[in-house]
Backbone:
């Protein structure tokens, strides 16, 4: 995370204006008791009624000045804190987006959401209202002690004793609250995760009649959240009343001792009135110390949480420097060392897995996988659940890097290519279809938002056999679909996802079990449309034979290794996994044909 001083330097002029107004506000606050002193001593006691009008005018001017300075002070602090929070949130979200898929595999969404929202809000307070009040307490305390010392050094001794005692109590309370706030922050993230998962999977919960179980799980976290807040409250009520008692006692002592001084002629009544007014004004900074310590402890705990995220680094990164071979392929200037982040176009020739092995959490996922795919050809991948099919797609998109072996694009290891080149030159239909809560049009434009025309969207919908049902919607492609495609059937979501991949029109088209939710008739139509696409290289993962039977090569994965490979007819002759799958899917039909003959 950037140091706090970076944000202070960025908006120094706003903070300088706010501090100036804060100083004027406090300076005018010190003037009022002086005017009160003159009214008592000179007007009431001395009979100088001719100056009363000007003293009242002075009080009005002081009041208007304080209101004006206070408004500018608070508005400037608030405005600056919003700017700082916006910068932190933007920087944080950008950092999270830069992290590798591996980070999201081990982190839950609720925790990340809490960091981006709640913890940044806590820091905003530290940069804004809380920070302003902390500075105001310091300036106010210094000024008021000086003014009190000018009136009576003896009486000022008592506030000088009380203030350090209050500060000590506040520090002790802050240390106890710091740990509690960290636990509250963790539990808040856990509770958000439970709520987010439950709301996202509400249909599954209702389908299995698990409402009571989910409510119980949420209430368990809610109870702990309550207990931690009560723990915080107990710390607060244990120490805060002590500070209140000391501040109230301070006024009583000042009144008694100051009254004796007035009786003995050592102090005027006006001076005592001014001192008591200063004394009353010295009370609130002491009372604020506990609350400010509380809030600053929360902000500090949030900063530590954010630092943990910033300490994370992406394991999958762009290369530090582009080799001459890569620059030649991308047509880049030889002096340009790094990618500009755009999808550089190049002539796709081939894609190759070369003895690729990959493990996750000490579990072997892929082992010694090799294949080569030439431009315009189709590769089919089959295998049982958990055999490593989707992992191959994740490796192609460089979500993960292999432990051993290489993945080559045009003979170049994809580790040497910018991530934008690897990913933007591939269109993918994920096994777990994700649609954003937006219009169908915007979902399809996701791959090349600025460059896709309406005609291309319609063409993509036609290829995905989605145009008929989209046209029947009240607003067509401008229909807003719910979160994750709520309101659409599984087959409709898959077809829109396919249309999104078709519209991108990247050199490599990847389909990960993309027709599993389609009926046989629609699947057949989609397969026909796929076969007519000659200018794209296709990688098709499927459980259905019909999806891969026309591929130029089919590989069968078993426990992360290739157990069979060849064309449809070749694999049937081997009588292995592919043959068994074929018989399981078409055996009854074949028996009926044999019986008919």
Residues:
């Amino acid at each position: 995370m950037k140091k706090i001083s970076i944000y202070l330097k960025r908006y120094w002029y706003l903070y300088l204006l706010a501090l100036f107004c804060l100083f004027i506000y406090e300076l005018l606050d010190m003037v009022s008791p002086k005017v009160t002193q003159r009214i008592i001593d000179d007007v009431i006691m001395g009979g100088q009624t001719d100056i009363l009008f000007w003293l009242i005018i002075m009080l009005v001017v002081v009041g208007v000045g304080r209101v004006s300075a206070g408004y500018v002070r608070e508005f400037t602090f608030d405005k600056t804190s919003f700017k700082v929070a916006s910068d932190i949130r933007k920087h944080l979200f950008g950092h999270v987006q830069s992290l590798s898929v591996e980070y999201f595999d081990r982190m839950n969404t609720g925790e990340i959401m809490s960091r981006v929202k709640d913890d940044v809000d806590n820091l905003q307070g530290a940069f804004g209202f809380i920070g302003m009040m902390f500075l105001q307490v310091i300036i106010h305390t210094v000024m008021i002690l000086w003014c009190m010392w000018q009136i009576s050094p003896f009486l000022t001794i008592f506030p000088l004793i009380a203030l350090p005692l209050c500060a000590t109590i506040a520090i002790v309370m802050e240390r106890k609250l710091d740990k509690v706030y960290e636990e509250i922050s963790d539990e808040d993230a856990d509770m958000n995760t439970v709520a987010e998962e439950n709301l996202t999977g509400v249909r599954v919960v209702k389908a299995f009649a698990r409402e009571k179980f989910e409510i119980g799980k949420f209430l368990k976290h809610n109870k702990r959240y309550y207990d931690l807040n009560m723990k915080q409250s107990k710390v607060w009520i244990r120490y805060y009343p002590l500070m209140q008692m000391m501040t109230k006692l301070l006024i009583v002592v000042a009144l008694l001792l100051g009254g004796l001084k007035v009786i003995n002629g050592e102090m005027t009544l006006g001076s005592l009135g001014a001192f008591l007014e200063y004394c009353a004004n010295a009370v609130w900074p002491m009372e604020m110390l506990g609350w400010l310590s509380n809030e600053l402890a929360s902000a500090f705990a949030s900063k530590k949480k954010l630092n943990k995220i910033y300490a994370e680094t992406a394991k999958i990164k762009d290369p530090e420097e582009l080799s001459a071979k890569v620059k030649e392929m991308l047509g880049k200037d030889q002096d340009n060392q790094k990618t500009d982040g755009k999808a550089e176009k190049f002539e796709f020739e081939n894609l190759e897995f070369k003895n690729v092995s990959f493990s996750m959490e000490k579990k072997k996922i892929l082992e010694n996988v090799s294949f080569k795919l030439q431009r315009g050809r189709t590769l089919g991948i089959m295998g049982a659940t958990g055999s490593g099919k989707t992992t191959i797609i994740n490796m192609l998109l460089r979500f993960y890097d292999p432990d051993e072996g290489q993945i080559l694009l045009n003979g170049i290891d994809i580790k040497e290519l910018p991530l934008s080149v690897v990913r933007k030159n591939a269109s993918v239909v994920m096994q777990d279809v994700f649609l954003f809560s937006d219009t169908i049009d915007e979902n399809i434009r996701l791959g090349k938002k600025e460059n896709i025309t309406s005609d291309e969207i319609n063409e993509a919908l036609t290829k995905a056999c989605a145009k008929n049902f989209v046209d029947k919607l009240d607003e067509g492609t401008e229909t807003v679909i719910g979160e994750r495609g709520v309101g659409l059937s599984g087959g409709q979501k898959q077809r829109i996802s396919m249309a999104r991949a078709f519209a991108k029109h990247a050199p490599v088209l990847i389909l990960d079990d993309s027709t599993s939710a389609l009926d046989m008739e629609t699947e057949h139509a989609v397969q026909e449309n796929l076969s007519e696409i000659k200018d794209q290289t296709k990688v098709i993962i499927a459980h259905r034979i019909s999806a891969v039977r026309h591929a130029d090569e089919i590989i069968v994965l078993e426990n992360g290794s290739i157990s069979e490979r060849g064309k449809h007819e070749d694999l049937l002759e081997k009588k292995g996994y592919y043959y068994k799958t074929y018989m399981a899917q078409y055996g009854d039909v074949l028996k009926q044909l044999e019986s008919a003959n």
The chain is about 65% helix and 10% strand. Residues 348-425+553-597 form a domain with the Rossmann fold fold (CATH 3.40.50.300). The radius of gyration is 36 Å.
